[in-house]
Design a protein that fits this description.
Radius of gyration: 28 Å
Largest sheet: 8 strands, mixed
Distance between the termini: 71 Å
Structural class: alpha/beta
Strand content: 5-15%
DNA sequence: GGCATGTGTATTTTT
DNA sequence: TACACATGCC
């Protein structure tokens, strides 16, 4: 096999790709060919006769893994590279646990729940326990999940997490503890795992006698991308995987760490050589992506960081064009300018595909989306609210999850409450009745009780249906029919007595047939329940289309949970794929991507940095890195927009607005590296240097009156 | 106990 | 604004 492509790498890249034995840390700045290096490393290993299925490639998204494997496939036989184990930590954990799960007390039929499922489960427990009684504000369900997840992923004690990251919840620690204990118990009883459990069980797998060796031994080489955004638990997993082998390569950039809210820590990179003695460190500093002026501005943003970073990027891509700082009258002016620029570049020969608009928070693009639509500029949005979060999709999935794992109470809860007249109390009663069905009329031997497996609530539903409120009776019967058909079971009511019912097993219909049965049951409920049922029914059609590619129901549900469609584009089928479209993305979702033209919007203080993050210095520093990540996505043209005026809809009298300040990261020194433009008719007073706006000083003066 | 209506509040980023 | 939570009626 020819390795001539090695000549195209720079010396540092080649050193990383051809590295021999032992651990390797690659510190790779933005645009330094990180993806290329990893892809080449995979191809190189395969060329060195490493079996592809003995290579594990851990990435941040499934998309990233697919891209690297695709690129490796251009350098070595593609049928070999496609056998590489690639994916996110969570997806790989899922795959391993389906194989080895029994060793850590896990039924291989477990189902996975996402964050909002976890939140719902916490909420149920919270009301069961009555913890939130009294006038005290108890943390809401989403906060509970955040606390839980942070504690698990950082592997620190609850008390410390509360003190450090959720101080306003510290007084509720006893209630939180109680909920978490029940939560753990409930998940175990119901064979349900949350995201964090996937990692925890993988870690447990590594530590288990014999199985741990089997799992670690399965992979000759472990490669990890975006290492700066891994957390303590993930680091623990890697150590567990490498107890008997030393071959591990991690790639990361401490200047691009932007996931501390998921308990990611740069410490993982810094400590890597300690955890893996004998580590060789390779640094990639030559940027192939951006022009020199864009890079100069990006570097200048990072220069003010309180932390010193390990490298400074340089580029040979000279250009006369500086990045552009556009000061806009207000948000709608910003939308106008961005659209104008996009069209201008499109007409200049840069297709929409090679342009992106980046922003801090998903809702920041709302107004722009309206403007784009009215100008007929097609776009796909990444990040933010997902298809899978929609109530009707969750409803549909709940049916499937019950079929897959009848012990999943959360899904039962959801489904049962769709019936008229059934609220939380009735749902709970029905679930309990299904879990503890009356004993069969012919008792037979009464000694085997302990040995018999738990009765499946689904079986109870068919053979011993519990009573339901009168209003629900009709639909409940339909529900039983739908479920039984999905299971390939026919129920024949005996003419003499309602019980025992005769149950006949046949073959289960295929997944698509099951979804169709469920949809037919659900459609009338959906129309009844929701405002705009037509849109929702279309979504359900989309769901059916996605399902068409799957044979395994479990695989379908799990994939949807671990790798949900990230943009509207993922849902659209092939006709759209040909079309040229603009990318709108949160900065987080833009990680690892690049575009010829990048438009950053809302570079105002309070947006970047988000005012949510101003509590501590670490938070502020992460916001700085976010801006850096956003800027370094640009290859040839970078526009940064600062709207000056923000209107507030809340106060409805007058045109209430506040003046925003330019992002504090765009200091004079940084601005000097930009070309400055103004958009819209900016009033005289607003053309003053923004520093002269004094609103904040007044606030500060006020605050001093009541702060200590 | 379910459900409709009213009130208040917090409001990012994602596997 | 949208969502969680409280209240009061059926």
């Amino acid at each position: 096999m020819s390795l001539s492509w090695l000549d195209e790498l720079n010396p540092a890249q080649r050193e990383a790709v051809t590295h021999g034995e032992g651990p390797l840390l690659v510190v790779a700045g933005a645009g330094t060919g990180k993806t290329k290096t990893l892809a080449c490393r995979v191809a190189y290993l395969i060329a060195q006769d490493v079996s592809p299925e003995r290579i594990l490639l851990l990435t941040f998204t499934r998309r990233a893994a697919a891209e690297m494997i695709r690129r490796a496939g251009q350098l070595c036989p593609a049928e070999a590279s496609s056998k590489v184990w690639g994916g996110t930590f969570h997806a790989v954990a899922n795959r391993l646990l389906r194989i080895y799960g029994r060793a850590v007390n896990l039924s291989p039929e477990f189902t996975v729940m996402d964050q909002s499922d976890a939140a719902d489960m916490m909420n149920l427990i919270r009301s069961d326990l009555g913890v939130a009684k009294g006038d005290r504000r108890f943390p809401r369900k989403t906060t509970l999940v955040k606390i839980h997840s942070h504690t698990v992923n950082a592997q620190t004690h609850l008390g410390d997490v509360l003190d450090k990251h959720f101080p306003w919840c510290a007084d509720d620690i006893e209630g939180i503890k109680a909920i978490f204990e029940q939560y753990t118990l409930g998940k175990r009883e119901q064979s349900v795992l949350d995201y964090d459990d996937l990692l925890l069980h993988w870690s447990a797998l590594c530590a288990a006698p014999r199985v741990g060796e089997a799992v670690g031994g399965r992979f000759e080489h472990v490669l990890v991308d975006e290492y700066q955004d891994t957390n303590a638990l993930q680091a623990e997993i890697l150590q567990g995987l490498r107890t008997n082998r030393k071959e591990i390569m991690v790639v990361g950039d401490d200047a691009q760490s932007i996931y501390s809210f998921r308990a990611a820590t740069v410490q993982n990179i810094l400590d890597f050589p300690k955890h893996f003695p004998g580590t060789r460190v390779v640094t990639l500093e030559e940027n192939y992506r951006s022009t020199t002026p864009i890079l100069a501005a990006s570097n200048a943003v990072m220069e003010q960081a309180s932390q010193r970073y390990t490298k400074e990027l340089w580029s040979n891509r000279g250009s006369e064009q500086k990045p552009v700082l556009v000061t806009c009258l207000d948000e709608s002016e910003q939308s106008h300018v961005v659209c104008d620029q996009i069209i201008e570049h499109l007409e200049g020969g840069t297709p929409l595909m090679h342009q992106a608009v980046l922003f801090r928070a998903s809702y920041h693009s709302a107004q722009l989306e309206v403007e784009l639509s009215s100008r007929n500029i097609p776009f796909h949005k990444y990040g933010g609210l997902k298809f899978i979060e929609a109530a009707h999709i969750k409803d549909m999935l709940a049916f499937l999850r019950i079929l897959e794992n009848p012990f999943d109470q959360l899904s039962w809860f959801r489904v049962l409450q769709l019936l008229p007249g059934v609220g939380p109390k009735s749902a709970r009663r029905i679930i309990d009745a299904l879990a503890n069905p009356p004993p069969p009329p012919t008792p037979g031997k009464d000694d085997g009780e302990d040995a018999s497996p738990r009765a499946s609530p689904l079986a109870s539903l068919f053979t011993a249906p519990p009573a339901v409120p009168p209003a629900a009776r009709e639909l409940f019967t339909e529900l039983r029919q739908a479920f039984s058909r999905c299971c390939g079971v026919t129920i024949e009511a005996s003419s003499k007595s309602p019980r025992p019912l005769k149950v006949q097993r046949a073959k289960e219909p295929p997944l698509s047939g099951q979804i169709e049965l469920i949809r037919k049951f659900y459609e009338p409920i959906c129309k009844e329940r929701y405002e705009n049922p037509l849109v929702r029914l279309r979504d359900i059609e989309q769901l059916e289309q996605i399902a068409a590619a799957y044979r395994s129901r479990n695989r379908f549900i799990t994939d949807l949970t671990l790798d949900p469609p990230t943009s509207t584009a993922d849902l659209a089928q092939s006709p759209f794929l040909e079309e040229d479209f603009l990318v709108l993305s949160t900065i987080h979702s833009a990680k690892g991507c690049e575009w010829t033209v990048v438009h950053i919007i809302h570079a105002a203080d309070g947006m970047i940095p988000s005012d949510m993050a101003l509590g501590d210095e670490a938070g502020l520093e992460e916001e700085r890195r976010l801006l850096y990540v956003a800027m370094t996505r640009a290859k040839d043209h970078l526009y940064v927009h600062v709207p000056l005026r923000y209107y507030h809809r809340k106060q409805r009298f007058g045109d209430s607005h506040t003046y925003a300040q330019r992002s504090r990261f765009l200091t004079d020194r940084v601005q000097a590296l930009f070309e400055k433009r103004t958009a819209g008719t900016v009033d005289e007073d607003m053309q003053l240097p923004v520093d002269s706006v004094v609103k904040w000083d007044v606030d500060e003066r006020l605050n001093r009156l009541w702060r200590d």
